[in-house]
Amino acid sequence: MKELDTNAIMQILFIKKKVSISEIAERLGVSRQTVSVKLGKADDMKISDIMKIAAAAGVNCKLTFTDKETGEVIDIQ
After folding, report:
1. Three-class SS string for the chain?
2. Largest CB tally within 10 Å, which of 3, 19, 67, 74?
3. pTM recorded for the entire structure
């Protein structure tokens, strides 16, 4: 499976949720350009920004860490 970059993942999310960058920007109370700039630098995007954009798209975003040896999910709260 090909590894997707953050921008590609967000674009897939927008397509699946049938939401535009303009709609995301409106829901976040920022300009379309601000969202576009963040997506253009998606590999440097903060997790908090990813979570805000996901919430604006109407989804929850969950980051999971799993121990490679034991398979244990490490809960970070």
Report:
1. CCCCCHHHHHHHHHHHHCCCHHHHHHHHCCCHHHHHHHHHCHHHCCHHHHHHHHHHCCCCCCCCEECCCCCCEECCC
2. 19
3. 0.79
Instruction: Check if the beta carbon of residue 42 is closer than 8 Å to that of residue 7.
Output: yes
* Other Cβ atoms within 10 Å of 68 Cβ, number: 6
Q: How far apart are CA 4 and CA 29, in angstroms?
A: 28
| pLDDT per residue as tens digits for the range 2-56 | 677 888 899 999 999 999 999 999 999 999 999 999 998 877 888 899 999 999 9
Dihedrals phi, psi of 65, to nearest 5 degrees = -105, 130
